[in-house]
Amino acid sequence: MFDFSSFLSNKAFITEDHHVYTYADLLGLSERFSEHLVPRSLIFIGCENSLESIVAYVSCLRSGVVPLLLSRDVPDETLYHLEAIYHPRYCWFPSRRDLLVKGKEKYSLGGYSLIQYDGDSPVLPEGLALLLTTSGKLVRLSHDNLKSNACSIIEYLKITSSEKAITSLPMYYSYGLSVLNSHLLAGATLLLTDKSYVQREFWKFVLEEKATSFAGVPFTYEILKKMRFEKFLPSSVKVMTQAGGKLNSSLIKYFSEYARLHDIRFYVMYGQTEATARMSYLPAEYTLNKVGSVGVAIPGGHFSLIDEDGMRIVSPNVEGELVYEGSNVFWGYAESLDDLFKGDENKGILYTGDLAYVDSEGFYYISGRKKRFLKLYGNRISLDFVESIVKDHCQECACVGSDDKLIVYVTDLDKIDSIKSVLSNRVLINPSAYEVRFIGKIPRTDSGKIIYSDLSII
Questions:
Q1: What integer pLDDT is reported at residue 226 of this predicted model?
Q2: Residue 168 has what pLDDT?
Q3: pTM > 0.90: yes or no
Q4: Which of 345, 425, 426, 439 sits a CA distance of 20 to 30 A from 182?
Q5: 176 in the Ramachandran plot: left (φ > 0), alpha (ψ -120 to 50) or beta?
Q6: Residues 84/95, Cβ–Cβ less than 8 Å
Q7: CA contacts within 13 A on the Cβ side of 286
Q8: How far is CA 50 from the centre of its chain?
Q9: How confident is the model over 325-338, as pLDDT tens digits?
């Protein structure tokens, strides 16, 4: 996956204290780490956007060890549950007394310790490269999945070795990891910080090190607009990317207009962890002409649409399930130890579960999730569509429900009456079929995605 031989003198990382690490430094540190590992074994890595986390990740991919990437702050209960199922040989976390009790410390770097567990551990199959979490399952990714997706991203974002990307997303999240992979493969520089984009120190680092690109999820861009980001975004930033969910049309227009006026390429993208990261991108020159589109398939990928009978849809503007084909499609899920030994179950084809349509010029639009629908009084209602309408009238909202009631959660108490009017007049929902509730804060994951399971439908 990672061959740094042609750019060893390039800057790989710059830390918050402005310490520079070259690719030669990264290679040396990763080789030192791999001396303590047995190939084809499983390791749990507690990730942060730090040298220690990335060295371990790079070392594993180069030496044939399979990492499961987790947050360094993963709850104890979750970590113990995963350990009981998958029996890792190693854990690489900031030093934790409970992990030391279970095994022996083999190596340390910075504040991290490599713990080797006692007892038997699985010898994993060749080809399996990485495990990521999604919706309570593990996603099994191969070396080819990772490399092909990173190469596609390099191509359409035009990433060169002169780029400097700020780590604005966690590396255990597929979108954040795709930023890491693509820039390392291109010999570019990563500005390492675990600070949030809402903190002054984050933007001070961006300014001082002249970052050239920034990545964010929809919630990121919602907050940036409220923060009046144009006051502190330096002129060095020439690429801004958005993925991780649908950004509402008004914000797409806002950021696209800003990008056009300031010589920035703003990309709207679409992907899933099951596709390693990216499946499509909207070329920057189309963001204003194709507002709401996720664009076209990435280089090497292909989209099609199928109807409810599995038949291919060939006409434009007809909704169906979006199907993706490409070498970045994951091998399959794992929910047990035995699942780790399965081969490639998908053969490059991913049924996304997203509903979409394509216009007459070949640009795709996501219209909702197959499972995010209610049937109220016999009418099929898309929760995603309702959210997109309501978001034009309030700061934040989230829709859940059952087939007898739609529940709309909003963070603007004074907008509840106007939102009820929107639902009745714009979405044409009978007032007895929905309820608008105030909530102080919409529950979200570290990557900004709404945790719908935390919202009551009772």
A1: 93
A2: 97
A3: no
A4: 345
A5: alpha
A6: no
A7: 15
A8: 18
A9: 999 999 999 999 99
Give how far Cα 361 sits from Cα of 205, 270, 321, Å.
41, 18, 19
- Mean pLDDT for the chain overall: 93
What digits encode the pLDDT tens for the residues 293-306?
Answer: 999 999 999 999 99
Does 387 have pLDDT greater than 80? yes
> 11-67 pLDDT, tens per residue?
999 999 999 999 999 999 999 999 999 999 999 999 999 999 999 999 999 999 999
* Interacting residues of 188 by C-beta distance below 8 A, sequence separation 6+: 10, 159, 160, 161, 162, 163, 164, 165
User: What tokens does 308 get?
Assistant: 């409810």
